[in-house]
Amino acid sequence: MLGYYPGCTVRAHQNGNFEKEALAILKVLGISVEELSEWECCGAIYPLTNDEYVPLLSSVRALKRTEEEKKEGLLTLCSACYHVLKRVNHRMNNDKEAKKRVENYLDDKYDGTTKVLHLIEVLRDQVGYKEIKEHVANSLEGEKIATYYGCLFLRPEKEMELLDAENPGVMEEIVKALGAEPVIYPYRTDCCGAYHASDKEEVSNSASLKIVMAAKKAGATQLVTACPLCKHNLQHCQKELEDEQKLPIHYITAPIYKALGADKKAEDEQPLAN
Questions:
Q1: Ramachandran region of residue 93, left (φ > 0), alpha (ψ -120 to 50) or beta?
Q2: Rounded distance, CA 236 to CA 262, Å?
Q3: What is the structure's pLDDT at 198?
Q4: 33: β partners
Q5: First and final CA of the chain: distance in angstroms?
Q6: Residues of 51-62 as b/e, b for ≥16 C-beta within 10 angstroms?
Q7: Which CATH architecture has domain 129-260?
Q8: 222 - beta bridge partners?
Q9: Where are the domains of the chain?
Q10: What residues does the Cysteine-rich domain cover (predicted)?
Q11: What is the DSSP letter of 2?
């Protein structure tokens, strides 16, 4: 049983169906998860100064609770949550001073046994592409799907330890397992502009539109990502385009959910999350 960390954005923005689709997919594929009995915001941004310890506390609480509830790992869906939780975990296991300071703040110990997992990682390592293919009920043959990784999913590579930061391929392999054609295009690992969307919209719009147009030029019929902020920026940058110029932006769960027929297979099941 994996512990499940929804995170603030995924839980707050249910209209994107990220959580609903992900939990249904996991159920169809036989992966058991249970939401942590208590969690709080991970902080959204990993602190970049070496003498900041308070911003680590909320993530360590989630990591420690995963240990206490004897879960096999901590699963999250959001690339930002994954980035913060994974890097905080890495620091707690490799920075003695940080570990001492955080444990002093919490007045408790963290053993460091929790493994932080992203949905994509679970699909790759615990399910496998072959198993996904065998569960396909509605092949996506004819679809040309571009995948967008962005920054937080991949870097810093030595700490994230998930994919080749320059040439990732896990989402493309999933797309192939669904029967669709993965579209390879420039900029799929470039930054979308991130939080500049809140104060320098022209910066994020420029960065995101470059990505969208490259994917569209390469023949994509849709663009998928695993990051709520990336999804927002990739959609928002197209607001001035004519409808025929726009490229649909979805979470990576959308084509998987459709291909597995997860809506029909899980419609009578109780929800996994509280």
A1: alpha
A2: 28
A3: 84
A4: 2
A5: 15
A6: eebebbebbbbb
A7: 3-Layer(aba) Sandwich (3.40)
A8: 145
A9: 2-120, 129-260
A10: 3-86, 146-234
A11: E
| Whether the Cβ atoms of residue 255 and residue 180 lie closer than 8 Å to each other | yes
What global pTM score does this model have?
A: 0.93
The one-letter code for the residue type at 16 is: G
2-120 is classed CATH 1.10.630.10: no
What is the residue type of 119? L
Task: For residue 8, count other CB atoms closer than 10 A to its CB.
Answer: 16
Amino acid 27: pLDDT: 96
Say whether 261 sits in a helix, a strand or coil: coil
Q: pLDDT exceeding 90 applies to what percent of the chain?
A: 86
Per-residue pLDDT tens over the stretch 75-134: 999 999 999 999 999 999 999 999 999 999 999 999 999 999 999 999 999 999 999 999
Per-residue pLDDT at 90: 97
Strands 249-251 and 222-225: parallel
Q: What is the DSSP string of 198-258?
A: GT-HHHHHHHHHHHHHHHHHTT-SEEEES-HHHHHHHHHTTTTS-GGG---EEETHHHHHH
Give the amino acid at 80.
Answer: A
